[in-house]
Amino acid sequence: MHFFSHLEPYAGDPILGLNEAYLADARPHKVNLSIGIYFDDAGRIPVLESVHQAEAAMLAECAPKPYLPMEGAAAARSAVQALLFGSEHAALAAGRVATLQTVGSSGGLKIGADFVRRWLPTSEVWISDPSWENHRAMFEGAGIAVHSYPYYDAARGGVRFDAMCEALSALPRRSVVLLHACCHNPTGVDLGAAQWRALVPIVRERALLPFLDLAYQGYGEGLAEDAFAPRLLADAGLTFLVVNSFSKSMSVYGERAGALSAVCADRAEAELVLGQLKATVRRNYSSPPMHAAAIVSRVLGEPALRARWEAEVGAMRERILAMRRRLHAVLSARKPGRDFGYILGQRGMFSYTGLAPAQVDRLREAHAVYLLRSGRICVAGLNNGNVERAAEAIAAVID
Ligand code: LMR
């Protein structure tokens, strides 16, 4: 009996599949600029000292491992709230924020998507053009129609902000608008403070539900600076959802450390929302991982570990900026007359290079340099040992 012979073969994920192809490539000089992972200058995924110390203490305690509650560990949830909004924020004091620890921020997106589908069944989702490759699939997978709003201006390397505002101003009421809180994935081009402020009246007047994705906190301008958007929307009294991740900021990708917060109108609504989000978790994966919660609450909650972590995040951000400068210098030297200033202006791990799919294929096939076919490179894959070669290879495929 063949129950499954009619299945379509899976074409593979454009990001994870490319990373697998990189790992399988035997060429010793290969360069991985595909996946959004921070590598150190030796090309390794670092174990942060703050995380290592937290884990050593956890191991020594040898505590039992019960199921966590559906919403996750209380200490991790309140640490996340303080990190996102600042511990003194009025929205927290008013009890209008419901936070769940989730299975990475992807788990938070999925729980949020299922929640929207069930409780705002006529709402559709708008994502930026372009957006993270998986956003559309996640919301469509939850049964929600997904559209896009104008975002990246390929000609200027900036944001098509007027077109974006015009599109958002015309959305049906209660539409969900997915916004990248910082370090836009894939372009590296963020909204400025004035632009975020200009979105507030549009969101209010059109009764839109922002859904912020904050996966790269600390990689833009700083931990507090990168939380500008959730703090602004909370200050403005808006209702919104926000997912955040520690995968990159604590370099704990496989631990699946993330959270989903719903900022609501008041405490009563936040309690209702928390209840239904818990029900959504129970239907999906029952409860989140304990190890992730313990890392997050210890690193954020113990002053010495917290200080160490903040310094480590700062160092990772600075190393990426140094790589941006090296890449910019080599490309500018090899291709005089071309403006590579976008590399310096973009923020976070990613740079949208404008390379066409054929150039990307040539980089992979002829030079063993891996990047997404959209032209996105992960600058955090560059290091002092490979940046010259990667830059020379990119210059070689540019006409
Ligand atoms: C990326 O965009 O490369 C990362 O967010 C990893 C992923 O899961 O796609």
What does this structure look like?
- By secondary structure, this protein is of the alpha/beta class.
- It has 15 helices and 13 strands.
- The chain has helices at about 15-25, 50-60, 75-85, 90-95, 105-120, 135-140, 160-170, 195-205, 230-235, 265-285, 290-300, 305-335, 340-345, 355-365, 385-395; strands at about 30, 95-105, 125-130, 145-150, 150-155, 160, 175-180, 210-215, 240-245, 255-265, 350, 370, 375-380.
- A seven-stranded mixed β-sheet has the order 2-10-9-8-7-3-4. The protein has a two-stranded parallel ribbon with strand order 1-12. It has a two-stranded antiparallel ribbon with strand order 5-6.
- Helix 6 links the parallel strand 3 (about 125-130) and strand 4.
- The chain is globular and about 60 Å long.
- The site of (2S)-2-hydroxybutanedioic acid has 6 residues, from loops.
